[in-house]
What does this fold into?
Amino acid sequence: MLKEFKVEKTPDKEELKKKVKAEQERLAKSQMKIKEKKLPIMVIFEGWGAAGKGSVIGKVIKELDPRFYSVATMSAPPTAENKRYPFLYRYVVEIPEAGKFKFFDTCWMEEVTSGVFNKTLDDKGYEKRIDSINTIERQLSDNGYLVMKFFFHIDEKEQKKRLKDLKDCKNTKWRVDKGDLWQNKHYEECFEVYDRYLKDTNRDHAPWYIIDAKDKDNATYQVLSYLNQGIDTALSNQSKAAPIRQNIFPLRKTPLLKDIPLDKELSDEEYKKELKKLQKKLRDLHNVLYRKKIPVIIAYEGWDAAGKGGNIKRITDALDPRGYIVHPIASPEPHEKARLFLWRFWNRLPRTGHIAIFDRTWYGRVMVERLEGFCSENDWQRAYNEMNEFEHELTEEGAVVIKFWVQIDSDTQLKRFTDRQNTPEKQWKITDEDWRNREKWDLYEDAINEMLQKTNTKFAPWYILESVDKKYARIKALKIVIDSIEKAIKEK
It folds into this structure.
């Protein structure tokens, strides 16, 4: 893309100032409509050192209401703490709420290209990062985000001059670091890497705009003009449904819930013996997990009163409390609902060596949200592939993902509901919503079957826990967790 870029003639200075002012006012007028239509806008600024990104950002936001935008500076290399999370983590947690702008002074491009320059990222690692970036940008676009990407381009001579001017002034010399000087010295090498990256991540849903940054007023005008055009297009396209993507991941066959035998059981003696042995084994493995820096995600879904809580407790009883967290997932909070639906789960991912257990998960999108009308049909239809992509990203980053469906029959649920209703100390566990959901058992069963069929991937498979006998389900879950962790340790 950089190789094909041609510098256009810069407009007259006075004319340019008028154009900039007009585009600034146009952007400011759009802001209330953006808020009203709940359009989230992610604006990414990349480019050469000393190309003027910071000053242009300042001019772009000049007329905007500061309550509805923020700026994230992501130019610093990832910290040791950042590196304990998936590559995309520190960027995804920064995405804007619906109706707001988020301006990124560099984003994921900086980390990837720096990895190429310093040889910490080989070709395979580079391709993996590119796939991750293209996937998340497409997911954001499909979920209603406007993603605008600008690359500020100056030639080698202009960059050298600007770096010298910055260094010669005592108030700005701090802005020039070794990386900027290295970049100018190796301009041709950097040019090739940047050109490749821009081509590899240039997509219809999130195209690159190359900005001629030699004149800062002209660069400001270009950015404002493209941004306003993008906003107008996005607002006019809001009513259009995003395409349903075809699943590209291999799936494992899954039986229908009605065909799963639920007569599995354990005696009290067998249960106690197995529980003690397996919990000791898991306790020892937790130490190895920490040493090997392997993150583990255990996801629980199941029928109300199926025994998820007791199952989780038998796992956590075996773990060091400093090394795990249980996330009970309820309805999304307003700030969570205003973002990509997977955002609140990105925020709850474990660090390397730690375990995150989810009591209810992202799969609520294709169950309760689907059946209760909390999202559109297009939203939940797209979600199967988006959740597969999410889990694939996690496993590619080295995480172990274990998904449990806790299965009981309708008669068992009724018995447990009635017991809760009639036992004072258990009444807090039963709500009117539980009874209402029970009336939709058949609808939920159809939705669950579809969910299991479409998301039972080889890298993040579903495991059915037959939980009419809770003891049997607890022992089975412990065995699966242990087996999954042992396999990951051997492969590390």
Summary: The chain is about 50% helix and 10% strand. The radius of gyration is 26 Å. The longest strand covers residues 146-153. The beta strands are 41-47, 69-73, 101-105, 146-153, 208-212, 296-302, 324-328, 355-359, 400-407, 462-466.
